Amino acid sequence: MMIAGVSAIFYGYAAFSESSKYAPRVKVDENVIELKNSFTKRVNRIKWIEVKKIEFDSYQLIFQLGEGELTFNYVSNPDVSIEIKNLLREVAQERNIEVVGG
User: Fold this and answer.
1) By the 8 A CB rule, do 100 and 56 touch?
2) What's the pTM value of the predicted model, to 2 decimals?
3) Which residues, 6+ apart, have CB-to-CB distance to 71 below 8 Å?
4) C-beta atoms surrounding 94 within 10 Å
5) Is the torsion defined by CA of 6, 7, 8, 11 positive or negative?
6) What are the backbone angles phi and psi of residue 85, rounded to the nearest 5°?
7) CA proximity to 21, closest of 1, 2, 5, 45
8) Exposed end of the chain (fewer CB within 10 Å): N or C?
9) Nearest Cα to 26, choosing from 37, 35, 14?
10) Which pLDDT tens digit goes with each residue over 17-51?
11) Other residues' Cβ atoms within 10 Å of the Cβ of residue 33
């Protein structure tokens, strides 16, 4: 029983803590976009310089890159989804990157 409790605490930290490298996230700064949608998936890092266009769909981000396309599906609540899209839109506009959808 004790082992199950310790395992649950570790899993909770690793899967949901903002400081965990395993937690799902969308992180945006002036140079890079980091996308991770699952505890078991690796982080996708996109340099802003590679982004030509961003398309927003329902819980989906589509990045047109210099060499192809990256589609990122995520699970969130509506408020967080809007916050993610607003942040991406703001940085994209500063860089004159086309944004489609909302």
Assistant:
1) yes
2) 0.75
3) 60, 61, 62, 63
4) 10
5) positive
6) -65, -40
7) 45
8) N
9) 35
10) 445 455 557 888 889 999 888 766 788 899 999 99
11) 24
3-state secondary structure (DSSP) of residue 45: strand
Q: How many angstroms separate the CA atoms of 2 and 81, rounded? A: 37
CA distances from 98 to 1, 25, 34, 66, 72 (A): 54, 23, 19, 13, 17
Give the CA angle between residues 37, 40, 43 to the nearest 5°: 55
| Integer Cα distance of 60 and 69 in angstroms | 13
Is residue 61 a contact partner of residue 71, using CB atoms and an 8 Å limit? yes
